[in-house]
Design a protein that fits this description.
This protein is mostly helical. 69% of the residues lie in helices and 0% in strands. Helix 8 packs parallel to helix 10 (179-191), helix 14 runs parallel beside helix 16 and helix 15 (262-274) runs antiparallel to helix 17. Mean pLDDT is 85; it is low at 16-20.
């Protein structure tokens, strides 16, 4: 009996050798059936499930790494010896964004630090965490809780970083007495894709803005002149701006056939009398001469005294009245 068992074992061994590395057909069939069964029963991983698990693992890994970085940042903040080191530590928290939320109380107290750079960095960090605290802090800073322009600018820049989309508090800053804050607020408002409402809002504010903001807004609007309602009237308004450089820029940007209107030409001529800025007077003369397309215009010296300029421009105005066809009124 034992001899028979030995013989059978030898036969089986030979059959496996003959098959090489290939599995017997019945074993392959069994595995295939098992795999199909796993798929039907949901025990096999789909590609989507594999990707989900891989992503979850990557996120856990990044969270662990972020926690370590935050712990180091906390250590740096505790050991910081001066304002520079404090600001650097706060920047480390800021880089972690919303993950730094557990440390927000430690960061927030630096919003009132004596050093402006530290306050600005603290504002950016709190904003990057987002949430109710971020909005409350930013509104407090924007409403003159901090008088430093650099710090308030940091609050303006951080408004979007905090996930805030309503622009009301930023729009209100166009009425601020600080020219730098006006300009930064205007830069924020010009970032979004312009709409008719936004364009008209900025246009309505431009006449009252200080020079730096007014020039920036003027350039921005004139690039979108096809969207401005009654462009000639807008140009006439800007020729009365308080800032001479803004008036000069208005003339420089007005070299457009669509502005070759009677009201604009008349305003330019009066600027040749009244404007105290020589550049504005010369540019107005140059543009009007080009629009007239004629060398028969009365003589005019932009550097003459006001009385002489007035006498010369009266002749220009008379010429304009006689040549209305060159300057449509509509």
């Amino acid at each position: 009996m034992s001899a028979l068992r030995i013989l059978l074992a030898a036969v089986l061994a030979l059959s496996f050798v003959a098959c090489g590395d290939d599995e017997p057909k019945d074993i392959k069939t069994y595995k295939k059936k098992g795999s199909d069964t796993m798929k039907k029963e949901g025990t096999a991983l789909s590609e989507e499930e594999k990707q989900r698990r891989e992503q979850a693992a990557a996120e856990r890994k990044e969270t662990e790494a972020s926690n370590k970085r935050l712990s180091r940042a906390a250590g740096h903040l505790t050991k910081a010896k001066d304002s520079f080191e404090i600001a650097e530590a706060l920047a480390e928290f800021q880089a972690e964004g919303a993950r730094a939320a557990t440390y927000i109380d430690r960061v927030e107290k630096f919003v009132d630090h004596e050093d402006a750079e530290v306050r600005a960095q603290a504002i950016k960090t709190v904003a990057s965490v987002k949430g109710v605290k971020a909005r409350e802090m930013l509104e407090r800073i924007l409403n003159n809780a901090d008088e430093d322009e650099y710090v308030r600018t940091a609050a303006i820049v951080s408004w979007t970083r905090a996930g805030l989309t309503d622009s009301g508090p930023i729009e209100a800053l166009l009425d601020d007495i600080d020219p730098g804050i006006q300009r930064e607020a205007l830069k924020y408002l010009m970032v979004d894709k312009p709409t008719g409402t936004r364009l008209e809002f900025i246009r309505g504010k431009l006449s009252d803005l200080a020079g730096p903001a007014a020039k920036l807004g003027l350039q921005w609007l004139m690039k979108r002149r096809d969207q401005i309602v009654d462009l000639p009237s807008f140009v006439v308004e800007m020729l009365d701006h308080q800032d001479s450089r803004t008036r000069a820029l208005t003339v420089a940007l007005a070299g457009d056939a669509s502005l070759n209107k009677y009201a604009v030409a008349e305003k330019f001529m009066r600027s040749m009398i009244d404007d105290p800025n020589l550049v504005v007077r010369k540019e107005a003369q140059k543009l009007l001469t080009a629009w007239a397309g004629s060398k028969a215009l009365p003589s005019y010296d932009a550097e003459a005294d006001e009385e002489a300029r007035r006498a010369a421009v009266e002749k220009w105005l008379s010429w304009l009245s006689d040549n209305e066809a060159k300057f449509p009124k509509n």
